[in-house]
Amino acid sequence: MSRTDQYIGLTNDAQAYVKQAMSVETYEIEGVWNKITLRVYHMPPPEGPNKEFICREVVQDTPWSSGPMYFTCLEATLVKDDKSECEMGKWFEWVVNPTVKSREYDEVKGHYYV
Fold first, then answer.
1. Residue 113 in contact with residue 99, Cβ under 8 Å?
2. SS (H, E, C) 9-53
3. CB neighbour list of residue 15: distance below 8 Å, 6 or more residues apart
4. Residue 65 domain-assigned?
5. I need a surface site. Which of 8, 10, 28, 36 has the fewest CB within 10 A?
6. Span 47-63, mean pLDDT?
7. Is residue 39 in some structural domain?
8. What average pLDDT does range 45-64 have in this prediction?
């Protein structure tokens, strides 16, 4: 059995949410064996004195199964008109659920157990 970095990525709900992005950028992080490409989504800002709404894909967890599995979620930041930033926390996080252990993860439910 070979060892490899396994990019699992965002849950299905997160993927559906970022489809409304106005633009997308990529950036790379170092995995154990390979580089992992993640994304920064520039979303429509909510109404009000808001200039930007940015959702950055970040690694939430890296359990091991023949190598690290990269489960990602979004970190949201709201940039106001005065350029102040409001950290909105992590969105669409994966949930540890031992009932999915035979499949390792369920991207539809956003659950994993590795």
1. yes
2. ECCHHHHHHHHHCCEEEEEEEECCCCEEEEEEEEECCCCCCEEEE
3. 9
4. yes
5. 28
6. 96
7. yes
8. 96
pLDDT at 1 over 70: no
Extract long-range pairs of 45-48: CB within 8 Å, 24+ residues apart.
Answer: 45/78, 45/79, 46/78
**Residue 34: both structure tokens together:** 């390979």
What pLDDT, in 10s, does the model give residues 64-111? 988 899 999 999 999 999 999 999 999 999 999 999 877 899 999 999
Q: Which structural domain range is residue 38 located in? A: 6-112
Residue 99: strand, helix, or coil = helix
Whole-number mean pLDDT of the chain? 94
Number of domains present in the structure of the chain: 1
Cα–Cα distance, 29 to 48 (Å, whole number): 34
Q: Does residue 78 lie in a domain region?
A: yes
Tokens of 53: 């709404």
DSSP-assigned letter for residue 83: S
- Answer yes or no: is 1 within a domain: no
